Amino acid sequence: MREAVSLAGMVLKSGPVGEYDRRLVILTRERGKITAFARGAKRPGSSLMAVSQAFVFGKFKLYEGRDSYSLASAEVKNYFTEIGEDVEAACYGSYFLEFADYYGRENVEGTELLLLLYQSMRALLKPSLPNPLIQTVFELRAMAVNGEYTAYPPKKVGDSAAYAWEFILSSPLERLYTFVLKDEVWRELRECVEINKRRYVDREFKSLGILRDLQG
């Protein structure tokens, strides 16, 4: 058997396979997006049951196969269980996972996208930050990570919205969620991000549709 590898990452997807196993998609810092199987994770008492769920962030010990990995264990840093306990936050968080899955690439170092995802999940736990603003910031920075953005807003906006656009693109990820905007400024910024999404993103996201239905 090959030597195990340790990869830092977050579980983007988790689905059942057969009677006892789970198939995971994990965004990792070292190897980008990978597929891993958690054998026996659905068996009562399995040590893999809790760590093979979406949102789990930590270090994963895996054995590498030809086309996928086998999960041996995980050292979890954060389960983000609080997000799952809030229906709206869970929709936003699931959307962020879908967006990261869309942009994640196999065998491509994923440090920046992973850190963005982690910081965005932490932001969802801050009552002082409006979730729609977190979504706008996440989308623009995720597109920037993938090189799909314009250096300036794609339409004429006021100085505050233009500054916010620049700040989101250039700020260290640890400082990304340290501001709020007036409603009119956020709407300007939001419209610009939507223009950018229509230009570069060719996919509909299930979680975003659920979120829209939830918000009416």
Précis, in short:
With 216 residues, this protein is α+β, with helices and mostly antiparallel strands.
Describe the structure.
The protein is α+β, with helices and mostly antiparallel strands. It has 2 domains: 74 residues, OB fold (Dihydrolipoamide Acetyltransferase, E2P) (Beta Barrel); 131 residues, de novo design (two linked rop proteins) (Up-down Bundle), CATH 1.20.1440. The chain is 42% helix and 21% strand. It has 7 helices and 5 strands. A 5-stranded mixed barrel has the order 1-2-3-5-4. Strand 1 and strand 2 form a beta hairpin. Helix 3 runs antiparallel to helix 4. The model has no long low-confidence stretch (mean pLDDT 96).
The N- to C-terminal Cα distance equals 53 Å
What is the average per-residue confidence, as pLDDT, rounded to a whole number? 96
The main β sheet shows up as: 5 strands, mixed, barrel
Per CATH, the architecture of the largest domain is Up-down Bundle
Computed over alpha carbons, the radius of gyration is: 18 Å
Q: Please, how many domains?
A: 2
How many distinct beta strands? Answer: 5
Structural class: alpha+beta
